[in-house]
Amino acid sequence: MASNPAYKNIIVTKIDNPGGLKVGQIQFNRPDVLNALNIELMGELLGALEQFDKETEIGCIIITGSAKAFAAGADIKEMATQGAIDMHIRDQFAVWDKIRKIKKPIIAATSGYVLGGGCELSMTCDMIVAAESTRFGQPEIKIGIIPGAGGTQRLTRAIGKARAMEMILTGRMYSAREMFEAGLVTRIADDEIYLEEAQALAKEIAAMPPIAVQMAKDAILKAFDTTVEGGLEYERKAFYLLFASEDMKEGMNAFIEKRKPEWKGK
Question: Does residue 257 have an active-site annotation?
Fold first, then answer.
């Protein structure tokens, strides 16, 4: 496992994967404020994600925090004195829009508090592996605001209107088990092994043909942006396009020849 010491608020590492491409891991490192998401941290996160997205040796990405908190929300001190025009000019959510455009799959490995912006960030990821101790919540209502980084939209799409209404309008926290049963969480793991579980899932994905993985992610996300008819058309075009890839030919030939495929990412 190799690490990058160039960041102040995050720890960036690459995890070897004998079965495929490496896994890029980003860990929040603001323990004194339970990994509150300030502007500086979000900038570093985007930078690390975009770098991993460019590197051909990386097949999947993990974002994680600490045992106490994945991220306990946005840094309220940065916003408490701001006015509406200040917030508009600052445009802090532009970073979030760019995170959504990362091509490679992103797994959130969560433990402890996943609140406010932390909950919204976990939903911006493609999958969530949650420790049993994880507590999800959108408590913005308790300080006079509402979720602003996609919480009202992504949460409603993930768990339905009724549950999203209760979660956002009461601001209360929900367990990992409740959110798994509601459809927000991909997997639940014991606190001692949740990160290893996320890494195992990431390695499994990173062993798949890279171009097909990225196009599959893109097509799945398109389901939230269009009609079923439009989504089916988009999926079909992506399906046909993959027949121009070397990996498609390798995968099918390997299947016919009963051998393990060797992906080239082309």
Answer: no
Clarify whether 202 is annotated catalytic.
no
| ∠ CA 31-34-38, rounded to 5° | 95
pLDDT per residue as tens digits for the range 181-212: 999 999 999 999 999 999 999 999 999 999 99
**Are 86 and 166 found together in one domain?**
yes
Of the listed 36, 48, 74, 164, which one is catalytic? 74
Is 74 tagged catalytic? Answer: yes
Which CATH number belongs to the domain containing residue 184 in this structure?
3.90.226.10
Contacts 24+ apart (CB under 8 A), 158-163: 158/123, 158/182, 158/183, 158/184, 159/183, 159/184
Catalytic one among 65, 116, 117, 150? 117
The reply to whether 265 falls in a domain is no
140 is catalytic: yes
